[in-house]
Design goal:
Largest sheet: 5 strands, parallel
Distance between the termini: 37 Å
CATH topology of the largest domain: Rossmann fold
Number of helices: 12
Radius of gyration: 20 Å
Structural class: alpha/beta
Shape: globular
């Protein structure tokens, strides 16, 4: 589990002082684990006890364990400069993630929803959304695909608490999407977020999170490429989890 995912998991426990410390850590990921607790406190201009409390809020026994975690997270993967190997690493990480992820509550939401909406915040994300829509047809679950943010905005007033949303976003920080997401949350409309594995507003706003590990690769000409295969894999995993959920339900009858 990454630091960003830990922050999402324990978000409700954290205060402004914690986020101030985390800002320093996230901006100095490659060096901060070299610092003892006194030096870390000095670098963040906070007390030792503030550093210790943050580590414990994130689930660590103390600062030493937190420091080991930060060092482990910074270790480079073999072949990290090779784009194909990085793609395989991303896929392998996602396979491990979906194998351990309990999607039962998400499947229940989908099964009990009167309407299911799916939205992708960009071109590739919309392709993922259409693929989800196609897969669920075989289970007689008909997902309503929202084509763009304007359509999303127009429909917002009509969304009900017995609807369910699936929102696919690479960053989870798309500015024009945030107001709609907050409206859903305020109205009590549940939604499942599928985002890259990092701390983001979309994932913070719902307890139903799925993460796709897709690390950007910067080429020699400074072009950045991002793999979307992990998003398709996570979407397929959600569909297969739903299939298994219904099969088990039918078996128990």
């Amino acid at each position: 589990m990454s630091l960003e995912e830990l922050v999402n998991q324990h978000y409700a426990k954290l205060n402004d002082n914690d986020f101030y410390i985390l800002k320093y850590i996230l901006n100095h990921k490659h060096t901060c684990y070299h610092l003892g607790i006194n030096d870390m406190a000095k670098a963040c201009n906070v007390s030792r006890s503030s550093i210790l409390r943050l580590a414990q809020k994130l689930g660590f026994s103390g600062y030493s364990e937190f420091r080991v975690f930060l060092k482990w997270e910074d270790q480079p993967e073999e072949g990290e400069n090779m784009t194909f190997e990085k793609l395989l690493d991303d896929i392998e990480a996602n396979v491990k993630y979906v194998k351990s992820k309990d999607m039962t509550e998400m499947c229940r939401l989908i099964d009990e929803a009167k309407r299911i909406f799916v939205y992708g915040s960009g071109t590739a994300q919309r392709v993922c959304a259409r693929e989800l829509q196609r897969m669920f047809v075989s289970r007689r679950k008909y997902l309503i695909l929202i084509q763009d943010i304007t359509e999303f905005d127009i429909m917002c007033d009509d969304f009900k608490v017995d609807d369910v949303f699936i929102i696919i976003s690479l960053s989870g920080e798309t500015p024009e999407l945030i107001p709609q997401v907050r409206t859903l949350s305020a109205k009590g409309v549940p939604f499942i977020s599928i985002t890259n594995l990092k701390n983001n507003v979309l994932a913070q706003t719902t307890p139903y999170n799925l993460y796709a590990t897709s690390k950007p690769v910067t080429l020699s000409d400074k072009t950045e490429i991002v793999a979307f295969a992990p998003f398709f894999l996570v979407g397929e995993a959600l569909f297969r989890a739903y299939v298994d959920y219904k099969e088990l339900e039918n078996f128990d009858k």
